[in-house]
Design brief:
By secondary structure, the protein is mainly alpha-helical. The chain has five helices and no strands. The protein has two domains: about 55 residues; about 70 residues, no CATH class.
């Protein structure tokens, strides 16, 4: 691996990483080292959250943002809707949600919900 502080190498790596997160894209044979390494890292991240691509591409894709939303739902004591996620994805989501539940503070969530309601934001 070359110097990651090289802006050209870093940009190729990031382009490869973003491509690896997309399950519908396959790496091209003549990709440079930085792009190929980034693609491999991105693909590993995708498969860590969504399961192996060889097992099929799920209807809904789990990303770090989706997991943060489930963590927040757990922290606020909110119910979640896990429809259309695969069993693999639900296992990943459940760990994040449970982590949020462990941090659940009823007083804090009621205070936050009050602030949201004052600002016209309804939480279902």
């Amino acid at each position: 691996m070359k110097n990651i502080f090289n802006p050209v190498y870093r940009q190729d790596y990031l382009d490869g990483y973003a491509s690896g997160l997309n399950p519908y894209i396959n790496i091209v044979g003549d990709a440079n080292e930085a792009f190929a390494f980034g693609f491999e890292q991105g693909r590993q991240e995708y498969e860590r959250l969504n399961g192996k691509i060889a097992h099929g591409i799920p209807k809904l894709i789990v990303t770090n943002k989706v997991l943060d939303d489930f963590l927040l739902a757990g922290m606020l004591g909110m119910d979640i809707d896990a429809d259309d996620y695969t069993a693999f994805q639900i296992d990943v989501i459940q760990k994040w949600y449970q982590s949020g539940v462990e941090k659940y503070n009823p007083n804090q969530s009621s205070y936050l919900l009050g602030i949201l309601e004052e600002n016209g934001i309804d939480i279902l």
